[in-house]
Amino acid sequence: xxxxxxxxxxxxxxxxxxxxxxxxxxxxxxxxxxxxxxxxxxxxxxxxxxxxxxxxxxxxxxxxxxxxxxxxxxxxxxxxxxxxxxxxxxxxxxxxxxxxxxxxxxxxxxxxxxxxxxxxxxxxxxxxxxxxxxxxxxxxxxxxxxxxxxxxxxxxxxxxxxxxxxxxxxxxxxxxxxxxxxxxxxxxxxxxxxxxxxxxxxxxxxxxxxxxxx
Length: 214
Hints:
Layout: H1 2-20, E1 24-31, E2 42-51, H2 57-71, E3 76-87, E4 94-95, H3 97-107, E5 113-117, E6 119-120, E7 128-131, E8 145-149, H4 155-168, H5 194-206, E9 211-212
Parallel strand pairs: 2-3, 2-5, 4-6, 5-8
Antiparallel strand pairs: 1-3, 2-9, 7-8
Helix pairs in contact: 2-4, 4-5
């Protein structure tokens, strides 16, 4: 009897600990995006995941709308964007490859997914990181995701830059003045060349991340 009571108590403690570690989707809502390309050739659907209390939805909306205008020069239109409000223990609220793999694997959200997180534990510590097909071999759970930290300057440009990395499936940077893919993001760096746009569209369409507009 004593053994049985101890076993039940242990199970109750484990259950309570597990509940405290739960990853939960609190709310899903559609984000309206104004048309960003006059004659779009491809549509992009995004999932925008953020943590309760760490990011304001208004800041995410502003960043996504501006980044949509930047990608619009390539004929890419963000046709659907879903805001997903999350709750999770503190260790999941920063970008850290082992924990972030666990988070993304548990949620299994549609891709591309943009995670808006509090900070990063990666070294060197970047404001944002993009994980495409080419750099996700040992971390497939993070494939086709972008992680933007709360301290990112110009989050709209950062988001467009990192999304372009994912869509092109390339970590390459440009030295061209004013180019979006310069290593250092800045408000004046928004241009993409015809070659970059073609690579972005062709690669992302082949990977199923863009759908042609019919």
